[in-house]
Amino acid sequence: MEYRLRYSQYNERSILIEWPAIIDEDILKNILNFKKKVLKIYTKQKVEVIHTYTSILIIYSFTIENVNDKFFELKRLFESQDKDLEVESWVWEIPVYYNDEFGIDLDNFSKAKKLSKDDIINHHTSAIYTVFFIGFLPGFLYLGGLNSKLHFDRKTRPNLDVKKGSVAIGGQQTGIYPQDSPGGWHVIGKTPVELFNASLNPPCKIRPGDKVKFVSIDKATYLDIESQIAKSSFQLKPIPNA
Amino acid sequence: MLRVLKSGFYTTIQDVGRFGFRAFGVPVSGAMDSYSSQFANALLGNSKSSALIEMIMVGGIFQFMKPTMIAISGADMNAKLNNEPIEHNRIISINAEDILSFGNASKGVRSYLAIKDGLMSERVLNSQSQYKPITTNGKIYKNDILNYKALAQEPQQLNASVKYDASVLFNNVLDAYKGPEFNKLTEFHRHHLLSRELKISKLNNRMAYQLEPLIANDLRSILTAPVLPGTVQLTPSGNLIVLMRDCQTTGGYPRVLQLTEKAINCLSQKTTGNILKIRLKD
């Protein structure tokens, strides 16, 4: 599929490239492929590339002298055919303890949506989610693929202290809080797994383009994984995405 | 090393920031006023990425344990060395036991204390800029001990000819580029945004500055998209939010303007109640 992209200068050092504003996995693949090409041609220069659903922002470490030269360079790069840059991806199974104890909003969610807690858990664990990008907080994954039966408007009043590891639903999205933070999503469970560790490089193992699957665990398993993490003897093992 | 006898209002260790980790959702951070902080480092012949101390509103009191050289730039906080006033923007020799004190800010709100060869402190993801929970602490506390290298040789007076451009402390017209959603504003709202005086609300910190009054608008939220320090967001309820150095990497509010680097530095030297205007850069 061919996309019409919009190139614009964002500030002295950055260029924004925008795809049509639709959440779409083909656009994601196109973006990830382009991002890889951009990082490949700029290995010698210090450049940072961030992307979201339909944008790439290229941040140079220097002031852009001639923006049209950069647009030309990037357009030519986008049009270049480079088959070697297939982006590999992995499937990550995230253990979640769905329960009123940690899923503080599970009960309200169940009543408001007229769904049993088991139905909520079944819907939430049966989908395979796509990681679109990381943003909002360090290590926060923007996931696509939430079952529409679980769509639920954000709270009008956010919780001031949502605990790290909380698994929550907000609007048409689901996510995992990578740290304690205020937040307006409905918390339905909690994972003992750490998604972000600033002492590692890269600090986040799950990458855009990867898949995430939630697996329901009981409290004993939750506590067991938690203690393994405390001893640094637990690691998520991803499976290659076929 | 130096001992923090008094930490001040909100004192942090900063450098040029955490470049290269925004793709993981990590804010770039770094000194709010990059001009003044880099000026202080340059005076000492430090590398651009040297870590220094950023103070806001009320400065701290520090006791040095080893001889070094320092330079102070940015807002005037009535700096005194062993109770004697000292000048900004020049190299100052420090002896062991010396006490450096700062008071309330005037002419700007953020002051920078650079130390010869930079502070040595916790380095996380290639930066010493404090940002919780990436770094252990989000700021400097009383009784903290900060390390620096002992002075090896007397530095020469470097860059003596370079003059500090104090307009960063006074300028209240901020230059901005059109943001990605600027063209979605009606002619009326564009005029409104660029012609009127804006006041800094009490919600201003290293993450963002909110400006008043509310600007009624009919812009719709956008799909979550990249943002940078200096991005000016306009919320559906009319709040004008200028993102600053510790801002999130992505956001869903329309990005109507983007401040220039110089304008971000100027805004960093302002606080609650200050009046400013935004001017479109052609």
Short description:
Chain A is an alpha+beta fold. Chain A has helices at 25-41, 67-79, 106-113, 117-126, 219-230; strands at residues 6-11, 14-18, 47-51, 55-60, 90-96, 129-134, 141-144, 159-162, 166-170, 173-176, 181-183, 186-190, 211-216, 239-240. Chain A contains five helices and 14 strands.
Oligomer: heterodimer
**Ranges of chain B with pLDDT <50 over ≥5 residues?**
none
Tally of strands of chain A = 14
Range of strand content of chain B: 25-35%
List the strand order in the largest sheet of chain A.
7-6-13-5-14
Task: Give the number of domains of chain A.
Answer: 2
CATH class of the largest domain in chain A, anyone?
Answer: Mainly Beta
Order of helices and strands of chain B: EEHEEEEEEEEEEHEHEEEEEEEHE
Overall residue-averaged pLDDT value of chain B: 94
- Ends apart, CA distance between termini of chain A: 22 Å
Sheet of most strands of chain A: 5 strands, mixed
CATH architecture of the largest domain in chain A: Beta Barrel
**Pair of chains with the largest interface and how many residues each contributes:** A-B, 42 and 30 residues
Rg from alpha-carbon coordinates of chain A: 20 Å
The helix content of chain A is 10-25%
Give me the CATH superfamily of the largest domain in chain A. Cyclophilin-like
SS-based class of chain A: alpha+beta
User: Can you tell me the overall shape of chain B?
Assistant: elongated
Write a structural description.
The complex is a heterodimer of chains A (242) and B (282). With 242 residues, chain A is α+β, with helices and mostly antiparallel strands. In chain A, strand 1 (6-11) and strand 2 form a beta hairpin. Chain A has two domains: 6-85, Gyrase A, domain 2 (2-Layer Sandwich); 90-240, Cyclophilin (Beta Barrel). In chain A, the strands form four sheets. Chain A has a five-stranded mixed β-sheet, with helices on one face. A four-stranded antiparallel β-sheet of chain A has the order 1-2-4-3, with helices on one face. Chain A has helices at residues 25-41, 67-79, 106-113, 117-126, 219-230; strands at residues 6-11, 14-18, 47-51, 55-60, 90-96, 129-134, 141-144, 159-162, 166-170, 173-176, 181-183, 186-190, 211-216, 239-240. Chain B is mainly β and 282 residues long. Chain B has two domains: 2-166, no CATH class; 171-280, Cyclophilin-like (Cyclophilin, Beta Barrel). Chain B has four helices and 21 strands. In chain B, the strands form four sheets. In chain B, strands 7-6-9-4-1-12-11 form a seven-stranded antiparallel β-sheet, with no helix packed on it. A seven-stranded mixed barrel of chain B has the order 13-20-17-18-15-14-21. Chain B is elongated. The model of chain B has no long low-confidence stretch (mean pLDDT 94). The A-B interface holds A 8-12, 14, 16, 18, 21, 23, 46, 48-57, 59, 61, 133-140, 142, 178-180, 196, 198-199, 201-204 and B 19-27, 124-125, 133-135, 177, 180, 222-226, 228, 230, 248-250, 258-261.
